[in-house]
Amino acid sequence: MKKTTIISLPNQKTERKRINKTNIFEEFSLDDSFFTLGKDKLYYIYTYGCQENEADSEKIMGMLNHMSYKRTMDVEKADVIVMNTCAIRKNAEDKVFGEIGRLKPLKRRNPNLITIICGCMSQEEVVVETILKKYQNVDIVVGTHNIHDIPLMLKRIYEGHTRIVNVLSHEGTIVESIPVIRESKIAAWVPIMYGCDEFCSYCIVPYTRGKERSRLPENIINEVKKLKEEGYKQVTLLGQNVNAYGKDFIDIKYDFADLLTDLHKIDIERIRFTTSNPKDFDSRQVDAMALGGNIMPQLHLPVQSGSNKVLRAMARRYTKEKYLDLVKEIKAKIPNVSLTTDIIVGFPGETDEDFNETLDLVKKVEYEGAFTFIFSPREGTPAAKLSDPLITDEIAHERLYKLNELVNEGYLKGNMRFLNTIQDVLIEGISKNNPDVLMGYNPNGKLVNVKGDKSLIGQIIKVKITDAKSWSLDGEAI
Ligand code: 5AD
Ligand code: SF4
To answer: How confident is the model at residue 18, as a pLDDT?
Structure first.
């Protein structure tokens, strides 16, 4: 086995304790010795999981670019491979392990190849143990709290270290000014906070992403202003629970409602945000969202279950009734809103009755889309210790199927309501299925296909909707 330098290993128990209560703000910088390390070298990056990971990958690309590496879209040509991983469900992890395995021959062909594993999987003890034992082709393991250490770890490898593990477990650090290479020139991710303090009983994220910590308002506001100047048309504010933004500030009183209100004043065309937690979504925030204008009438509001018993077991800390009240208020104040959600089926203890309550809630809310999942036990979380022999694989799949049928009706209905209307569509690119067709989104986040010239990419144009399908709308530019 090759020699490993272990700077620090993940520890989910320490992570749970949240030793570090105050936020530490740092500015990223690299000295001159880093700038040419990647000269004539190529990197390939895999990004799995959520938008937070996409935003992190854009920072990793920014740092590598700063070190003179260039990106390749062909993994076989890479000198450095970065795998930004997701741990949310077991199948997400299986996919990553499968891919690391497939990369083994590349290392045999090119012993100088450096493979970096980062993202949420690196924060799990079992994953790091498995990598160290079974995946000799991995050179660097770095956690979610210190992606900014990647340049230094690469340097150490060039200096002769064979393998480095550096995963922190109780950090409250916010690092500003990391260079970013954005995938899009039109729509940008803007993380407003990191981590999560919810500890829903099924969820690994509070362990992998650490303590909830908010960026300072002025840094977010300045970033959005700068994006506007650079020509961006849309920002999506990111956080595991954006509604808890600012709760960790000690000496200032400023929350998500304040942030939305301030961003509303900037003349960037479109503002979206994700993900919301019903527990922290208060009336002031609904009012701020209802300002409208550049704040888009689209909301992803994960409910997870429609049964109070299951919600309690999930430690969601709201009831079905409270959720429905919130939906009522949102619909009253933002009549045109499109609501989507996340739902888990097969949570231990979920009976047919509980599941029927979920179906009932889906009907009541009239979601226009949903991500649906079968419960996946994650080691180290309280729910992983629960078991339910009554929920067989077959029953879980049956429930998922039934739920999806209902959800799919919602997708279609949600699209049908735009038939024959005129929509403002931000054209983001060319349709994947047809090179002659442009694709973009209306304010509600519906995918719209429209014939038109490529020069329209990046513009908001008026489109008459001529056809509505389950997954997209068709229209004509007017
Ligand atoms: N099993 C299944 N689904 C999960 N999610 C989070 N953790 C799990 C798990 N252990 C789902 C939730 C969450 C979405 C991002 O993933 O619905 O909102
Ligand atoms: Fe996956 Fe959650 Fe980590 Fe995002 S925060 S990468 S969804 S585990």
So the answer is: 75
Q: Is the CB of 304 under 6 A from ligand 1?
A: yes
Residue 378 CA: which ligand 1 atom is closest? 10
Mutate to test the pocket of ligand 2, among 58, 144, 196, 209 (most ligand atoms within 8 A of CB): 209
Q: What pLDDT is recorded for position 153?
A: 97
- Going by C-alpha positions, the residue among 417, 424, 420 that lies closest to residue 465 is 420
Q: What is the pLDDT of residues 350-403, one digit of tens each?
A: 999 999 999 999 999 999 999 999 999 999 999 999 989 999 999 999 999 999
Q: Is the pLDDT of residue 348 over 90?
A: yes
Q: How far is the CA of 48 from the centre of ligand 1 (A)?
A: 15
Q: Considering the entire predicted model, what is its pTM?
A: 0.96
Could you give the strand order of the β-sheet that contains 338-345, starting from the edge strand earlier in sequence? 298-300, 338-345, 370-374
Residue of the CA atom closest to atom 4 of ligand 2: 50
Q: Which amino acid residue places its CA nearest to atom 6 of ligand 1?
A: 203
What pLDDT, in 10s, does the model give residues 105-139? 999 999 999 999 999 999 999 999 999 999 999 99
Q: Which ligand is nearest to the CA of 375?
A: 1
| Residue 20, pLDDT above cutoff 70 | no
Q: Which atom of ligand 2 is nearest to the CA of 120?
A: 3
- pLDDT number for residue 1: 64
pLDDT per residue over 246-282, tens digit each? 999 998 999 999 999 999 999 999 999 999 999 999 9
- Rounded Cα–Cα distance for residues 105 and 263 (Å): 49
Contact yes or no for 300/273 (Cβ under 8 A): no
Q: What is the mean pLDDT of residues 6-32?
A: 85
